[in-house]
Design goal:
alpha/beta; 5-stranded parallel beta sheet
């Protein structure tokens, strides 16, 4: 029986377990997660920065966070949100409950080992197996196990990317990354500078404005075409800091009390030995075959590692693809052929100009997965995402009030 190690019990891990369980083959599956509860980044430990055991909190969630895409785009044919959840953009606690009930409904708890942190994964070439070293957080002990396959589902919203600008050390106020943002209420009456152009930057600057910040400014390298609430100032990227004064690329400057970087995340794969890591910035076409297979070792897979338009349903179909490979229904190409396929996708990615292009690109990718796994094309919800982009761009502060049609 093939032994499979799934690393992470967040959405990627949960939907991978479901896909593997549906396989016509029987596997010896074990899933490890360092947290005390399933859910990955959707498990919120309040405003704490450290767990009870003294470890850094994994999740970048904050108090008022809502789903930033319609819930109708992440549901499954065999499990949807309850009809009592009328909004298309529920809060984080509703999404966590959905994941918990999904695990319960499909009996996935039997695979999951919580409070177990994977510290190291190595590949023993002579034996063609992986050695996985795990720490038991409850007992402060460690042990190792051997597996035929490893599926990494650890996500990529844990290790913040935070650039450093000249003069930061002279700034008298607070500087933080959005991972450590917990609530806008602590910034009431302050002059806020938010750095970034992605959804987290727009949401946090909106929440700071809504909750009584004295002033709110958003600065970014890319122009922000979204209509943000009146009173939020858009500025080009800044170049340096002198005390509380920040100087922008257009020659202007202003004083601020706090700076929040919403500048994204880096892949955190330190638990894999160097030979098993891929290296990439956050992008749609990551250097993995079909977004899942590590070309240098086709017994190592990844789920949910790319930039995301689609989320839950894409994770599931990535894992369905892996299952098809393990069953022999889809042949894994040679390393050279895999790298060629990756290069072709990355070449196509270069031509993408904006959010709508990203949506079309990832829809085409998901269609490939659906075709290979003989799945349901109704999961291709491009029209929902295009409408989302339209309403979000038109008026950011009200986009979560829109209602989207159910798919299933």
């Amino acid at each position: 029986m093939k032994r499979i190690c799934v690393i992470g019990a967040g959405p990627s891990g949960i939907f991978s377990l479901k896909a593997l369980q549906e396989s016509s083959e029987k596997y010896d599956i074990v899933c490890y997660d360092s947290q005390k509860q399933i859910g990955g980044l959707w498990y919120w430990e309040g405003e704490n920065y450290f767990t009870e055991e003294g470890h850094p909190v994994h999740s970048p969630m904050y108090e008022d966070l809502k789903l930033n895409g319609p819930k109708e785009t992440i549901e499954f044919t065999d499990y949807q949100f309850p009809s009592s959840i009328e909004t298309s953009f529920p809060g984080r606690s509703v999404v966590l409950k959905y994941l918990e009930e999904y695990v319960e409904k499909f009996g996935l708890h039997k695979y999951i080992n919580l409070n177990k942190r994977v510290d190291h994964v190595s590949f023993l070439k002579n034996d063609n197996i992986f050695k996985v070293v795990i720490s038991d957080i409850n007992t402060s002990t460690s042990f190792s196990k051997e597996f035929d396959y490893v599926i990494v589902c650890s996500g990529h919203y844990c290790k913040p990317y935070q650039p450093i600008y000249p003069g930061e050390d002279t700034f008298p106020g607070e500087i933080m990354h959005s991972k450590h943002f917990r609530s806008a209420s602590r910034f009431v009456g302050l002059r806020m500078l938010i750095v970034g152009a992605a959804l987290s930057a727009k949401d946090i600057v909106f929440l700071c404005k809504k909750n009584g910040a004295k002033s709110t400014t958003i600065t970014s390298r890319k122009p922000i075409n979204t209509n943000l609430p009146t009173g939020i100032i858009k500025k080009p990227i800044f170049t340096k800091i002198e005390g509380s004064k920040v100087f922008f690329e257009d020659g202007t400057s202003d004083n601020f009390d706090a700076i929040i970087y919403c500048t994204g995340y880096l892949h955190s794969l330190e638990f894999l030995e160097e030979e098993l890591r891929f290296h990439s910035h956050d992008r749609l076409a990551i250097p993995l075959y079909l977004g899942t297979v590590f070309p240098e070792n086709s017994n190592l897979f990844f789920v949910g590692m790319s930039s995301q338009i689609y989320t839950f349903t894409m994770f599931y179909h990535q894992a369905k693809l892996i299952s098809c490979m393990l069953e022999g229904k889809f042949k894994i190409p040679s390393p050279r052929e895999m790298k060629q396929s990756i290069a072709e996708w990355q070449e196509k990615e270069k031509d993408l100009k904006g959010q709508e292009d990203y949506m079309h690109f990832q829809t085409a990718y998901l269609k490939d997965l659906i075709d290979i796994t003989n799945s349901d094309e109704r999961y291709l919800v491009l029209s929902h995402f295009l409408r989302l982009n339209e309403v979000r761009t038109k008026k950011f502060e009200t986009y979560t009030e829109h209602k989207f049609e159910k798919v299933f």
